[in-house]
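[Meeting: bench + compute handoff]

Bench side (C.D.) handed over the final construct sequence. Compute side (W.E.) agreed to return the predicted structure before the next meeting so the bench team could plan truncations. Sequence as handed over:
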Amino acid sequence: MKLGFAGMRWLVDGMNVIGTRPDAWWKDRDGAMLRLVKALEEWVALAGEEVTVVFERPPSPPIRSTLIEVAHAPRPKRNAADDEIVRRVRADPNPGAVRVVTSDRLLADLVWAAGASVEGADSFRVRLERE
């Protein structure tokens, strides 16, 4: 995350947002990851927010962006992206300026307890599609 950024910083549970639409994303996970990154880039270009999307594993081929941070958990495993998001919120010097996008109840509870706010993945997906 960029230091000194004054606005809201978003941590996006990537696969959780991707999973909000039954568009056969599971047939091409890497393609779905790329499409989400592109949508996030378009949103950031308009909204000016700071965004990090976290996946459970690195996309193949790697996805690079100059507008958002594309991150992944250190080791792919069940809930690995959730663990990475919680780690990042807990390490943030100002967690109150962080909004986590997820519909995962346990993840939401953990980041709330750490001081971040939460937006549901479905409402965030609508936000991306609207802008």
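W.E. noted at the follow-up: The helical segments are 14-18, 29-47, 80-91, 105-113, 121-130. C.D. will use this when planning the next construct.
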